[in-house]
Amino acid sequence: MNLKPETYQRIDEVITHYPVKRSATLPLLHLIQEDAGYISEESLLWIATKLELEPINVLEVVTFYPMFRRAPIGRRHIKVCRTLSCALLGGYKTCETFQAEFKTSLGATSPCGEVTVDFVECLASCGTAPVVLIDEVLHEKVDATKARQISAQIRAEAAAR
Amino acid sequence: MPAPAQTRVIFKHIDEPGYTNDLACYVRHGGYEVLKKSLPRPPADLIEEVKKSGLRGRGGAGFPCGFKWSLVDRKSGKPIYLIVNADESEPGTFKDRYIMHQDPHQLIEGTILSCFANNVKQAYIYIRGEMPEGARILEKAIAEARAANFVGPNILGSGYSCEIFVHRGAGAYICGEETGLIESLEGKRANPRIKPPYFPAVLGLYQCPTIVNNVETLCHVKHICDLGGEAYAKTGTPGNTGTRIFCVSGHVQRPGYYEFPAGTITMGQLLNEICGGPLPGRTFKAVIPGGSSAKVLRFGERYKGKRKVGADMVDYDWGVEDVPMDFDSLAMIGSMGGSGGVIVMDDSVNMVEALANINAFYQHESCGQCTPCREGSLWMKKISSRMVHGQARKEDAALLKSVADQIPGRTICAFGEACSWPTQSFLIKFKDEFETYAEVKKTLPADRLALV
């Protein structure tokens, strides 16, 4: 596995938080996914060895929790809240707008490789619906107009890179 | 009757200009003073204060906090763990987010006080995976508190030591269920455990006695330790003490979070006066009072019966607007106060489509270990989605109801109830809309707002 030295350090540190190594499964998956972008077969086996578990113990966790993925996605991850309070104020429209802006479909990566658009369930910010989590930043009251502005911003950032 | 004024205790500093989430700011506002004055007290005194306060858990069930603590097995010789349930994920609920992002030290102080009261040496904050920023803020706050000796070994020279670690979830709603959360913290799938025997107070994390409390509940503990249980209980109403935070979302003019003495405000005051009423040209149609699993209330229906006021039994005859927003009144009219998440729907909403949205949520979030819930939530989603996107039939109403009726009471955890209550209540309160949906659908504009 080709991770940053800092990631390996954080992995060793986080294991010390628990009296039982297995508890570090979720933290390790998060750290590796943040670094590598997804959970590969190799990292799955590596975690199992590191925590003295059977590989199935790690795989069953990866498949249970929606945030972990087994394949790479776009550079930016746009997660639109699908649940009731956001839907009541246009969440579906917001999601469609992002898909149209990047010429992609739900769950797929845009042809430019820049973004993946997904629906997710309640993001716990219902009072400022509709909300969208882009990578680690929450955007509030994202109607179609604001979705287009954010899309333009993402494209501008990609062009500047 | 005009609505009472907000009493901000837990949310005192939320959105306050100039208030930052660092330790220096918290200390400037009197932070950790309660910890300082409480550490010399016997821990049992603090448990007694919490019992006297009448504090009820703010996560959704409204279980008395002091009683929960008294159930902890203290004779086993095993370590006792405390887990902060920061997996806020009941749709419509968004209060803990603001506490963690804007006032994390309030949570840390409440957590350390609760740990001290219960002789806990290790606490975990289980925060939703979707709040990465919140997790970073909490980690930074814990590091600051540790550097100032409010957390860690020999806190303020008292001889008492306690560590707090942040543990991130990964997008599964079921982790809000306390035994599912414990499984998840152990590094497994979050399949809830069967009770008995796995009551967390006896066989929790690593099979040790464990206390699981909601973020807001632990913040209340700080104020109880400050004021004393009896003084705290003077706020609110008997049986519903302290303040309550309501999270209002959906079709109102001013959605947001509002904190009131518990039991002092009615649904009508909250929605019409505080939240500014319906959107222009609209009228209220339905409201879900305590997170999306709470049973829906229909504007225009009446609730009648007898209730206890002091020592007397009195008749009540309420419309939705008259219902006091406390745990007991909402339970009395067949719904629940739950997590305080109030979702409002106006007359633009078709109830079949709203239910289809809710059903898709519960189907996605069922952990899958109990057949009635796994299959039932799936079929409720399939039927309601088909009604919206495909062919709808008159008999779908009865079919949906029959699936929902076969789930509750037949599952390991309360998710079975949570996923069936929306369908059951929508079908009872809006049966006509489900039976006539096939016809009505033809008249609905094709470009209407999609809910599913």
Summarize the structure in words.
The complex is a heterodimer of chains A (161) and B (452). Chain A has 161 residues and is of the alpha+beta class. Chain A is built from 7 helices and 4 strands. The mean pLDDT of chain A is 97. In chain A, helix 1 (5-15) runs antiparallel to helix 2 (25-36) and helix 6 runs parallel beside helix 7. Chain B is an alpha/beta fold and 452 residues long. Chain B has 3 domains: 23-234, Rossmann fold (3-Layer(aba) Sandwich); 241-346, Ubiquitin-like (UB roll); 351-443, Up-down Bundle (de novo design (two linked rop proteins)), CATH 1.20.1440.230. Chain B is built from 18 helices and 13 strands. A 5-stranded mixed beta sheet of chain B has the order 8-7-13-9-10, with no helix packed on it. A 4-stranded parallel beta sheet of chain B has the order 3-2-1-4, with helices on both faces. Chain B has a two-stranded antiparallel sheet with strand order 5-6. Chain B is globular. Chain B starts with 22 loop residues before the first helix and ends in a 9-residue tail after the last helix. The model of chain B has no long low-confidence stretch (mean pLDDT 96). Classes of the chains: A alpha+beta (161), B alpha/beta (452). At the A-B interface, helix 2, helix 4 and helix 5 of A face strand 3, strand 7, strand 13 and helix 13 of B.
What does the radius of gyration of chain A come to? 18 Å
Low-confidence stretches of chain B: none
Oligomer: heterodimer
For the largest sheet of chain B, list the strands in their spatial order.
8-7-13-9-10
CATH fold name of the largest domain in chain B: Rossmann fold
> How far from one another are the termini of chain A?
26 Å
CATH class of the largest domain in chain A: Alpha Beta
Low-confidence stretches of chain A: none
Kindly report the greatest chain-chain contact and the residue count on each side.
A-B, 45 and 56 residues
Record field, number of beta strands of chain A: 4
Average pLDDT level of chain B = 96
Strand order of the largest sheet of chain A: 2-1-3-4
Query: Per DSSP, what share of the residues of chain A sits in E-state strands of 2 or more residues?
Result: 5-15%
Helix count of chain A? 7
- Give me the secondary-structure category of chain B: alpha/beta
Task: Assign the CATH topology of the largest domain in chain A.
Answer: Glutaredoxin
Helix content of chain B: 25-40%
The first-level CATH class of the largest domain in chain B is given as Alpha Beta
Proper CATH architecture of the largest domain in chain B: 3-Layer(aba) Sandwich
Sheet with most strands of chain A: 4 strands, mixed
Fraction in helix of chain A: 40-55%
